[in-house]
Amino acid sequence: MCDGHGATTPFSEAETAAVRAFTERLGLDGMIDVHTHFMPKPVLDKVWAYFDSAGPLLGREWPIAYRADEERRVAALRAFGVTTFSSMLYPHKADMAEWLNGWGADFGARHADCLQTATFYPEPTAARYVAEAIENGAEVFKSHIQVGAYSPLDPLLDGVWGVLEQTQVPVVIHCGSGPAPGEFTGPAPIRQLLQRFPKLSLIVAHMGTPEYEEFLALAEEHDEVRLDTTMSFTDFSEEDAPYPPELLPRVAALQEKILFGSDFPNIPYGYVHALQACERLGLGDDWMRSVLHHNAAALFGR
């Protein structure tokens, strides 16, 4: 079925059955998706408009596969058997993050299966509202270096990183230079950040696309650095930034530090393809069970 924009609706019985069969074959009652997007409607509408225009940060056509209202998107994830998801939101300017955090707290209160998500931006009030968000139950933060166009080394974030390191609340951080490089993207700033805050709990989004090896090394070197699979290994990503096959033995060795993420709803293919793309790496059922559920369950206590 289509929603009028040429995209598949999130209620395809065939796809739901395929996703359910996938996890059942692995012996899982469900899975955890650490990288899903839920935002205030005016913000998400602007994000979708940017995707529709194939903006410069995308570099290509990018149709939204799951364009639907908020509750239909929540229902789709639950139908797929996603027992825990997130509401990745992020600011692109100052005086926006605290408002997003309030929305994220309300969304989390209304959806018990959502990890309460918060965010930040380099501004004088950041350390205060990050600490308040944690006190109010934030379980994960999102940092988008590319869209926010800020340096993770900005002095205005020193207090933020300090609070996050002390509390060990994980941060999903889009810091790789894909799909298009930004002024502050890449592994070098993150390596410097970890020299100053070595115990930060970071989840590098998209396996660090396209600087795969460098971010893989950071996960190997730092106990609290992990990677998420978001969009990685899919046909769409392999076209522009194929994952080097010679790195797969190291990916296998990092079995307990890789988490499944989808980028739902902003993906240009069906949800089941993200699962199939991970499986076709050939790293085994134990690796898949760890990535789809066990690692995130341990990290977030879910």
Explained architecture:
- The protein is α/β, with parallel strands linked by helices and 302 residues long.
- Helices cover 43% and strands 10% of the residues.
- It has 13 helices and nine strands.
- It has helices at residues 13-25, 41-52, 70-80, 97-110, 126-135, 145-148, 158-167, 187-196, 212-221, 235-240, 248-253, 271-279, 285-300, and strands spanning 31-32, 82-86, 114-115, 117-119, 140-144, 171-174, 202-204, 225-228, 258-259.
- The strands form two sheets. It has a six-stranded parallel beta sheet. A three-stranded parallel beta sheet has the order 1-2-3.
- Strand 6 (171-174), helix 8 (187-196) and strand 7 form a beta-alpha-beta unit.
- Helix 4 packs parallel to helix 5 (126-135) and helix 5 packs parallel to helix 7.
- The longest helix has 16 residues, at 285-300.
- Mean pLDDT is 95; it is low at 1-9.
What secondary-structure arrangement, pairings included, does this model have?
Elements: H1 13-25, E1 31-32, H2 41-52, H3 70-80, E2 82-86, H4 97-110, E3 114-115, E4 117-119, H5 126-135, E5 140-144, H6 145-148, H7 158-167, E6 171-174, H8 187-196, E7 202-204, H9 212-221, E8 225-228, H10 235-240, H11 248-253, E9 258-259, H12 271-279, H13 285-300
Parallel strand pairs: 1-2, 2-3, 4-5, 5-6, 6-7, 7-8, 8-9
Helix pairs in contact: 4-5, 5-7
